[in-house]
Each structure stands twice: as structure tokens, then as C-alpha cells.
């Protein structure tokens, strides 16, 4: 038996453009909760937004870095990236979401995959998103938004990776991550993490011969998977260190979870993040996302940081 277990997704982090557009899109149109507003650990002039359900539970969290005005180029979407981030909604809500997206002038298409009804669209920065209709998702949504509870997003459904050479990626997902290959449709192969259901699947798209992606505005920076304990995370890190030509970071304290980062053989940047301590560690559940939270070392510069951050109407 493995010394670690990876149940499924934790969060997805993307490089986006305008902070106000991003906030409005994910909280007002999609109805997610802003569970944390902080700053990029590497650039305190840039916000780091976390959107999710009421408590920001793992597998519900979309996080963004709005880099407008910071000299970041437009990204190139291609292999070695997360290509599609999909959210789960009740099947009966499809009519509601099509009307809602149309009213907001968001163009969408409907492309079924693996027997699921799916709405594909883009966010204001060009990220590829999907809504997947499922009736087997018991995660609690954020209920204090403009989206009625019965139609609300439950969390992630899955992510789709674009991979140029799939065999090494398949081997890594099964041998190291402990995932199980469960289905194939066209150039897509679906894998299940240790747990099943929405939020615990990834699809690998065989894009042999396609252009390599480059991070920038409108691209996913990395995808994170959850792990229950520091001990399991350490065991996974040791496993990766034992693989030729693989690199993995030291443990990173992200305040709301502890993380390690590594690139899988297909080039996608993976993070594995602990479930604890979670977002209520520095704000009460009722007040999540209301105040700007800074890393401890940035606190002495709060006034200067707040002065230079983009102005957002919350």
C-alpha cells in the first residue's frame, strides 16, 4: 500500500488580465464566493484571488493572478498546460446557465463528452471553461450570490491537460499519482484520483504535434491536487525525488495549505497541497474574503501595498 493517497483536485491557478473584470465574472456571473483576497507572494502589486464555495473547500477553488499593467505577455495556449477547467452544475440547470451566459453576452457552445452534457465558454481573459451537468454532486455551493442555490456551481468537475507525448504522462499519473485510467473517447483519456465523482477526475488530451504552450495572460499556471497530511505529502515528495530527471520544490508554506510543485513528464506544472489549515485560519467563516490578507512578511508594508494594488469595486 502506498504511503500517500491523492483524493482529487484542490485548486486551479490562472494568470489573468483585469482584476475588476475577473472579480465580477467569477463572483457575479458564475456566483462563486471570494473566499480570500491576498497578494502574489512574488509580486505584491498583484492580487491573488481565491473563489470557491462557502468555506473554500478543496476541489472548489479557482484562483487567479490579475496581472494587467505588470508587463506580462499574452499567453500561448498549447501542450504542457491545463487547457480546460470544468465546473459541476445540476443537470436541470442547463437552461438557466445558457440564458445567463447569453444575457451576459458570453458566447458558448455545447459539446458532450463522456456522455455528459457540457457548455464550453471563455472568461474575460480567454481561459477555457466548461459547465458539466451532473446529478451526483453533493458538495454544498455558495448560496449568497446572484445565482439561485438550485442552479449554483458545486465545484470543479475536472481539468483537461493538453499533452504532446501521452505515454510518459499516463505512466506518471498511474504509477506516481495513483490515478486509475477509466475511459477513452476520441483523443481524450479520463483518469480518476483516489476518490471518485466530480472534482476527482482529469482528462488527458492527446495533442501530438501541437504547439507548446507558454504561460501568460489567459492561461492556467498550474493545477493543484489535495493531500490529507504533511506526512503523506513528504512521502510523495520522496517518491518524486527518486525518479530520474524529475525535480520537486521544497515545502512551501502558503498559509492556507502547504505545497510542493513539480512538472510532470508532459510539462504541466502540478502542485500538491494539504487540506489543512484552510481559509478560515485568519478570518471567520462569515467574513471570508472581506479583508485584504497579507503574508506576515508583507504586513509592515501594508499601506504601500494597498496604495499600489488595482482599485476594485467589491
Explained architecture:
The protein has 314 residues and is α+β, with helices and mostly antiparallel strands. The chain is 16% helix and 35% strand. The protein has one domain: 2,3-Dihydroxybiphenyl 1,2-Dioxygenase, domain 1 (Roll). Strand 14 and strand 15 (257-263) form a beta hairpin. The model has no long low-confidence stretch (mean pLDDT 97).
Helix count from the secondary structure assignment: 5
In whole angstroms, how far apart are the ends? 48 Å
Strand order of the largest sheet: 2-3-4-1-13-16-15-14
> Structural class given helices, strands, pairing?
alpha+beta
Helical proportion, percent range: 10-25%
CATH superfamily caption: 2,3-Dihydroxybiphenyl 1,2-Dioxygenase, domain 1
CATH uppermost class: Alpha Beta
Order of helices and strands: EHEEEEHEEEEHEEEEHEEEH
Oligomer: single chain
Major β-sheet, in short? 8 strands, mixed
Number of domains: 1
Q: Low-confidence parts lasting 5 or more residues at pLDDT below 50?
A: none
Instruction: Say how many strands there are.
Output: 16
Strand % is 25-35%
CATH topology: 2,3-Dihydroxybiphenyl 1,2-Dioxygenase, domain 1
Cα-based radius of gyration, to the nearest Å: 19 Å
The shape is globular
Q: Output mean pLDDT.
A: 97
Q: What CATH architecture would you give?
A: Roll
Amino acid at each position: 500500500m502506498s504511503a500517500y493517497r491523492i483524493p482529487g483536485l484542490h485548486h486551479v491557478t490562472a494568470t489573468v488580465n483585469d482584476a475588476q473584470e475577473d472579480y465580477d465574472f467569477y463572483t457575479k456571473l458564475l456566483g462563486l464566493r471570494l473566499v480570500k483576497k491576498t497578494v502574489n507572494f512574488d509580486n505584491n502589486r498583484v492580487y491573488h484571488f481565491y473563489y470557491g464555495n462557502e468555506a473554500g473547500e478543496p476541489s472548489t477553488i479557482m484562483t487567479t493572478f490579475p496581472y494587467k499593467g505588470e508587463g506580462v505577455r499574452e499567453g500561448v495556449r498549447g501542450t504542457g498546460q491545463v487547457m480546460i477547467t470544468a465546473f459541476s452544475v445540476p443537470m436541470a440547470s442547463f437552461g438557466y446557465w445558457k440564458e445567463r451566459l447569453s444575457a451576459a453576452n458570453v458566447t458558448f457552445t455545447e459539446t458532450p463528452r463522456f456522455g455528459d452534457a457540457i457548455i464550453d465558454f471563455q472568461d474575460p481573459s480567454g481561459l477555457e471553461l466548461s459547465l458539466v451537468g451532473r446529478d451526483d454532486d453533493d458538495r454544498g455551493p455558495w448560496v449568497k450570490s446572484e445565482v439561485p442555490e438550485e442552479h449554483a456551481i458545486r465545484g470543479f468537475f475536472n481539468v483537461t491537460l493538453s499533452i504532446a507525448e501521452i505515454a510518459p504522462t499516463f505512466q506518471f499519473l498511474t504509477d506516481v499519482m495513483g490515478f486509475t485510467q477509466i475511459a477513452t473517447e476520441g483523443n481524450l483519456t479520463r483518469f480518476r484520483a483516489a476518490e471518485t465523482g466530480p472534482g476527482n477526475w482529469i482528462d488527458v488530451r492527446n495533442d501530438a504535434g501541437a504547439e507548446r504552450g507558454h504561460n501568460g495572460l489567459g492561461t492556467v499556471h498550474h493545477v493543484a491536487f489535495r493531500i490529507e497530511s504533511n506526512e503523506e505529502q513528504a512521502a510523495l515528495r520522496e517518491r518524486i525525488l527518486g525518479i530520474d530527471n524529475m525535480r520537486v520544490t521544497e515545502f512551501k508554506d502558503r498559509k492556507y495549505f502547504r505545497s510542493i510543485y513539480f512538472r510532470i513528464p508532459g510539462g504541466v506544472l502540478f502542485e500538491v497541497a494539504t487540506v489543512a489549515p484552510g481559509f478560515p485560519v485568519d478570518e471567520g467563516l462569515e467574513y471570508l474574503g472581506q479583508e485584504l490578507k497579507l503574508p506576515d512578511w508583507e504586513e509592515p508594508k501594508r499601506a504601500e501595498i494597498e496604495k499600489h494594488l488595482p482599485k476594485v469595486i467589491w
